[in-house]
Write a structure and sequence with these properties.
Chain lengths: 537, 229
C-alpha cells in the first residue's frame, strides 16, 4: 500500500515537473519571439501609451463609437431604429469594446516575464520551481486590472451585447464613462481631485451624517401628522438630500414647527457643505495648476516633430529664442533657474525648470533628441556647464547638431572634444565685426542690410533636391538673372567645396546647395520656378 | 575716408579681442586704458598704450586727422562707455566712432550719444548662432568673406572722375562683370543703398561719387578695378 502511494506520488511529481518545464519553456518562447513582442508592444502603445502618436486616432475612433451608441439609445426612446443601427449598436460596438477589453487584459501585465522571474529566482536559490506561486502572481496582476474602476466600466459597457435583457440596455450609459479613458483632460481632472481624497471623504462623511440624522428626525417629527407630505422614511431621506444640496424643490416640505426647526439646521449644514466642497475643488485646482500646465507642456513637446533645444536661458539665449520664435520655429528651453524659466514662459516658449545636464531630464520629458531636435544650443553660464551638458547629450545621441557659446578662449578645445560642432566666442565675433566695419564700413553695412531680419532682401540656401536635379543640369538652366537674383555660389556635394560665382556651364547635382541673394518675393517665386520648370534637354 | 589709425578705449575681454583683430590691418593701433594695471597688460603684448581719464582734456587728439582715425569705445562699464562716446562726439564732431554695447539699453544710449556704429555683443552672438543653425552655408560664405586669411573679399569701390562706368546702368555693368566678380550693390552720394537685384538698383545710373560693393577674389577684384578706372 505504501509502495503504491509512493509510486502515485512519484508519478504526480513527474507530471507536475514536466508541466512546469513546459510552462517555463513556453514563457521563454514568448519572451524571445520578436513578432509576438512587437504585436504586444503595438497594442500596448495604442491602448496605454499617451505619447504614442497613433493613440489619439484610436481614442477618437472609440469616442465616435461611444457617442453613436448613446445617440442610438436616445433615438430608440421615441423612434424606431432600423435593423442596421440596432445591429451596429448591439453587436458591432459591443464586439469592438469586448476586443478592446481583452486586449487591455492581455497587455496590462507580462505573464511570461513573471513566470521567468520566479523560475530564475528559484534557480538562483537552488530550490524547486514554484509554479503555483508564479501563477498566483500572474493572476494577481490581471485581477488588479479587472478590479480597477476603469476596467469595471469597460466591462459594464460591453453588457448591452446581451440586449435581450432589457435592463442591460441601460448599461450603454456606462459607455459614456469610458470617455474618461480617451480624454486626457478628464484624466487630469480625476487626478487633481484624487489629491483631495481625504478632505472630500471627510466632507462626504459629514454630509452623510447630517442626511442620516435629519432624515430620521424629520420622519419622527412629521410622519404622524396626516397633513404632512412626509409619510415614509424614503420621503424623509428625499427631503434631506434636496435640502442639504440647497436645491429645494419645494414638493416635500415640513409643516410642523419641530420639522421646520430641523429644516433650518439642514439648510445651514447644506450651505456649509456646498461652500466647503467648492473651496476644496478650487484649492485642488489652484495647487495643481502649475502641474497641469507642465504636463500639458510635456505632452505638447513630445508631439513636436522638430525643435531647437536651448540649454540655459541667459541674455544670448533670450535673443536667440525670441528670433527663432518669430521665424516660427519650435524652441524648447531648459534651465535650472525658475526665474529664467518663468521669463521664457512669458515669451511663449516651451520652458522647463530642469537640469539640461541630467539624463533623467530627457527621460522624464520623453523626447528622442536624435529624431526631434534640429540642434541643441549650449548657452549656459560657464564652459564647465556647457561641456558637461554636451557630454550628456552625446551620451544619448551622436547625431544631433551641437552649438555652444565659449566663455573662456582656453576652453575651445574642451568643447570640441565633448562633441560640439560649432563654437561661438562672442569676443571674437565682436572683434571681427569691429575690424570689418573699420576697414570697409559700406561693404559691411551692405552685407548686414542684405541679411537683416526685417529687410525685404535675403541671402538664402536652396538644396538641390531630386526634382530640381531632374530639371536643372547647368547653372545656365537656373534663370537667376531672369528672376533678378544673384547666384553667389554653389556648395558642391561631390567636391565638398564652395564654388563662388560659378560659370554658366557648371553642372548642378542633387545635394548641392545654391546660395542666392535677392528680394524675398523673387526668391519665393524662384523656388517655385526651379521646381516646376520643364526638364532641360 | 580711409582709416589708418584706430584708437581703442578700454582693455577688457572684448577690447582685447578687437585689438588682436585690427592690429595687423592699420598703420597704428593705440589702446587707452583707465588704469595702470590694464596698461601694463597692453605693454606686455607690445601694443601702444596711453592712460586717460573721462575728464575734458583731449589736447592729445587735437592734432590728429579725424578722417583717418577711428575711435572704438569698448570700456567695460556701460555708463563710462556712453560718457566716453558723448565726450568724443562733443570734442570731435567729425570723428568716426564704433561703440561696443552689452545690452539693448546700452546700445540705444550709445546711438543717442552719436556713435556711428553700435556692435551689440548679445545681438552679434545671437545672430551668428541663428545663422549657423538656419543657413550654415551662408554663414560659411560670409565668414569666408570676412576672414582676412581667405582670398574671397568684399571691396567698396568709389566711382571717381573719369571712370568708364559713369553714366552706365548698374544692371548692365553687373552682368558684364559677372564673369569675374559679383557686383552686389551701389551706395549713392546720399548714402542710400541700392541692391543690384532691386527695381531701383536695376535702373540706377552710376554717377561720380557712387560706391560699388563688390564680392570676389583678391586678384579679380584688383583686375576689375584696373579695367574700369
Amino acid at each position: 500500500m505504501s509502495e503504491e502511494s509512493h509510486h502515485s506520488s512519484s508519478y504526480r511529481e513527474r507530471y507536475v515537473g514536466a508541466f512546469s518545464r513546459l510552462v517555463v519553456w513556453f514563457a521563454y518562447f514568448l519572451e524571445t519571439w520578436a513578432f509576438y513582442q512587437k504585436v504586444k508592444k503595438f497594442f500596448y502603445n495604442l491602448l496605454e501609451n499617451q505619447n504614442y502618436p497613433y493613440k489619439r486616432y484610436f481614442d477618437v475612433f472609440m469616442m465616435v463609437l461611444i457617442f453613436s451608441s448613446v445617440f442610438i439609445l436616445i433615438r430608440e426612446v421615441r423612434h424606431t431604429v432600423n435593423d442596421f443601427w440596432a445591429l451596429f449598436n448591439d453587436y458591432i460596438i459591443s464586439v469592438v469594446f469586448l476586443v478592446e477589453y481583452l486586449l487591455r487584459f492581455w497587455v496590462i501585465s507580462d505573464s511570461s516575464a513573471i513566470i521567468i522571474q520566479q523560475y530564475e529566482k528559484d534557480e538562483l536559490l537552488q530550490r524547486k520551481f514554484r509554479l503555483g506561486r508564479a501563477i498566483v502572481k500572474t493572476l494577481a496582476a490581471k485581477w488588479q486590472f479587472m478590479t480597477s474602476l476603469s476596467a469595471i466600466i469597460d466591462l459594464l459597457a460591453i453588457m448591452p451585447f446581451f440586449h435581450e435583457l432589457r435592463l442591460l440596455r441601460l448599461f450603454i450609459l456606462f459607455r459614456v464613462f469610458k470617455i474618461f479613458r480617451y480624454t486626457q483632460n478628464m484624466q487630469y481632472f480625476g487626478k487633481i481631485l484624487s489629491h483631495k481624497k481625504f478632505e472630500l471623504l471627510t466632507l462626504l462623511t459629514f454630509a452623510s451624517i447630517v442626511v442620516f440624522v435629519s432624515s430620521i428626525l424629520i420622519y419622527v417629527m412629521e410622519a404622524n401628522n396626516p397633513n404632512s407630505p412626509i409619510n415614509s422614511l424614503f420621503d424623509a431621506f428625499y427631503w434631506s438630500i434636496v435640502t442639504i444640496s440647497t436645491v429645494g424643490y419645494g414638493d416635500v416640505t415640513p409643516i410642523t414647527q419641530e420639522g421646520q426647526s430641523v429644516a433650518v439646521l439642514v439648510i445651514i449644514a447644506g450651505v456649509a457643505v456646498l461652500s466647503f466642497a467648492t473651496s476644496i475643488v478650487v484649492t485642488a485646482f489652484t495647487e495643481r495648476m502649475e502641474e497641469i500646465r507642465e504636463n500639458k507642456m510635456l505632452s505638447d513637446i513630445r508631439k513636436l516633430k522638430h525643435f531647437y533645444l536651448i540649454c540655459g536661458y541667459g541674455e544670448v539665449a533670450k535673443q536667440i529664442a525670441s528670433k527663432l520664435h518669430r521665424k516660427g520655429r519650435n524652441v524648447v528651453v531648459l534651465d535650472t533657474d525658475e526665474t529664467r524659466i518663468a521669463a521664457a514662459k512669458e515669451n511663449k516658449l516651451y520652458a522647463l525648470a530642469m537640469d539640461p545636464a541630467a539624463l533623467s531630464t530627457y527621460q522624464s520629458i520623453g523626447v528622442d533628441l536624435s529624431q526631434q531636435a534640429s540642434a541643441v544650443l549650449l548657452l549656459r553660464d560657464s564652459d564647465v556647464l556647457n561641456v558637461y551638458t554636451a557630454l550628456t547629450i552625446r551620451h544619448m545621441t551622436q547625431t544631433v547638431k551641437l552649438l555652444s557659446i565659449l566663455h573662456d578662449k582656453g576652453n575651445r578645445r574642451k568643447l570640441h572634444l565633448s562633441g560640439v560642432h560649432n563654437i561661438v566666442y562672442a569676443q571674437e565675433v565682436v572683434g571681427i565685426l569691429s575690424r570689418e566695419y573699420s576697414g570697409k564700413p559700406i561693404a559691411f553695412e551692405t552685407m548686414n542690410l542684405l541679411r537683416a531680419e526685417n529687410s525685404s532682401t535675403d541671402m538664402i540656401e536652396i538644396v538641390v533636391d531630386d526634382l530640381i536635379a531632374s530639371r536643372v543640369k547647368h547653372v545656365s538652366d537656373l534663370g537667376t538673372r531672369k528672376h533678378r537674383l544673384v547666384l553667389i555660389g554653389i556648395s558642391k556635394i561631390d567636391e565638398e567645396a564652395f564654388l563662388f560665382n560659378p560659370k554658366n556651364d557648371v553642372e548642378i547635382h542633387q545635394g548641392d546647395i545654391l546660395v542666392v541673394v535677392g528680394e524675398i518675393s523673387m526668391l519665393s517665386e524662384f523656388r517655385l520656378h526651379i521646381h516646376k520648370q520643364r526638364k532641360s534637354s | 575716408m580711409k582709416t589708418h589709425d584706430v584708437k581703442v578705449f578700454g582693455y577688457g575681454e572684448f577690447a582685447r579681442e578687437i585689438v588682436y583683430q585690427v592690429n595687423e590691418s592699420y598703420r597704428s593701433v593705440s589702446v587707452y586704458t583707465l588704469d595702470e594695471v590694464s596698461a601694463e597688460e597692453v605693454r606686455k603684448v607690445g601694443s601702444e598704450v596711453h592712460l586717460f581719464d573721462l575728464g575734458d582734456n583731449w589736447d592729445e587728439f587735437k592734432e590728429i586727422s579725424m578722417e583717418e582715425t577711428l575711435f572704438i569705445c569698448a570700456l567695460d562699464d556701460d555708463a563710462s562707455n556712453v560718457f566716453l562716446a558723448i565726450s568724443l562726439r562733443d570734442q570731435f564732431p567729425d570723428s568716426r566712432i564704433i561703440g561696443i554695447a552689452s545690452t539693448h539699453e546700452h546700445a540705444s544710449k550709445l546711438r543717442l550719444a552719436g556713435v556711428h556704429k553700435v556692435i551689440s555683443k548679445l545681438q552679434a552672438t545671437a545672430d551668428i548662432l541663428i545663422e549657423v543653425l538656419e543657413k550654415p552655408v551662408v554663414t560659411h560664405v560670409v565668414q569666408d568673406i570676412l576672414d582676412e586669411e581667405t582670398a574671397l573679399k568684399t571691396m567698396q569701390m568709389v566711382i571717381e572722375k573719369g571712370c568708364i562706368l559713369i553714366g552706365q546702368k548698374l544692371d548692365i555693368i553687373a552682368y558684364e562683370a559677372q564673369e569675374s566678380v559679383i557686383i552686389l550693390a551701389v551706395v549713392d552720394s546720399k548714402m542710400d543703398t541700392y541692391f543690384v537685384f532691386t527695381a531701383r538698383g536695376y535702373r540706377h545710373q552710376l554717377e561720380e561719387g557712387d560706391i560699388l560693393v563688390i564680392i570676389g577674389y583678391d586678384e579679380e577684384l584688383e583686375t576689375f578695378k584696373r579695367s574700369v578706372t
